Amino acid sequence: MSRAGKEKEREGEKLIVRNKRATFDYTLDDRFEAGLVLLGSEVKMLREGAAELTDSWCAIENGEVFLKGVNIPVMPGAAFGHEAKRPRKLLLHEAEIEAIRKGVEREGMTVIATRLYFKNGRVKAEIALAKGKKTVDKRESLKEKDAAREARAAIARARGGGDRGRSSAPRAARGEARPNPRRPE
């Protein structure tokens, strides 16, 4: 099952796609919910779950925010199709745009899309101010992820209770003697 399938869906939301590389490559800060200006064929392709956010980022141009690098495949047979990687306008309040602009200009952050989802029938994008991680930070993230995975596995083993601390290896491999099937007479 994909990670997107494991992620709990919020009330009235249906996840389309999640940017799995975002938390690995960046330290995420403030998050914003934005509407998208889309064409009909783009919405149809999103309903089929076809999109890719891996290389997506946002740019502020003339006081408006545009989502770039999102790949929504072209719909086959569409009379009025769309370009797969065209810039798409995001719908945000002026205060949110100003907060994003300040974060990018002053703090040297970038803006990336973390997920696309339907909310009450409308396509929404969650964008986040992000700061790029260095290689050392990425290694640390991997260590933390491995430790969390091992802890979950240990908890699952403890809850299972069936083996009571014994390994699932055969008795001979564990060095235990085979029980004598004969009864003493």
UniProtKB/TrEMBL annotation:
Where is this protein primarily located? cytoplasm
Compositional bias (Basic and acidic residues): 136-152, 173-185
Entry GO CC = cytosol
* Any single biological process term in GO: trans-translation
* Superkingdom of the organism of origin: Bacteria
State the residue spans of region: Disordered: 136-185
The record ties this protein, via SUPFAM superfamilies, to:
Small protein B (SmpB)
Where, subcellularly, is it found? Cytoplasm
Q: Which Pfam families does the UniProt record give?
A: SmpB (PF01668)
Keywords noted in UniProt: Cytoplasm, RNA-binding
User: Per its UniProt record, what HAMAP family does this chain match?
Assistant: SmpB
**Physiological role:** Required for rescue of stalled ribosomes mediated by trans-translation. Binds to transfer-messenger RNA (tmRNA), required for stable association of tmRNA with ribosomes. tmRNA and SmpB together mimic tRNA shape, replacing the anticodon stem-loop with SmpB. tmRNA is encoded by the ssrA gene; the 2 termini fold to resemble tRNA(Ala) and it encodes a 'tag peptide', a short internal open reading frame. During trans-translation Ala-aminoacylated tmRNA acts like a tRNA, entering the A-site of stalled ribosomes, displacing the stalled mRNA.
Task: Give the family from UniProt.
Answer: Belongs to the SmpB family.
Q: Can you name this protein?
A: SsrA-binding protein
Q: Which organism is this entry from?
A: Sorangium cellulosum So0157-2
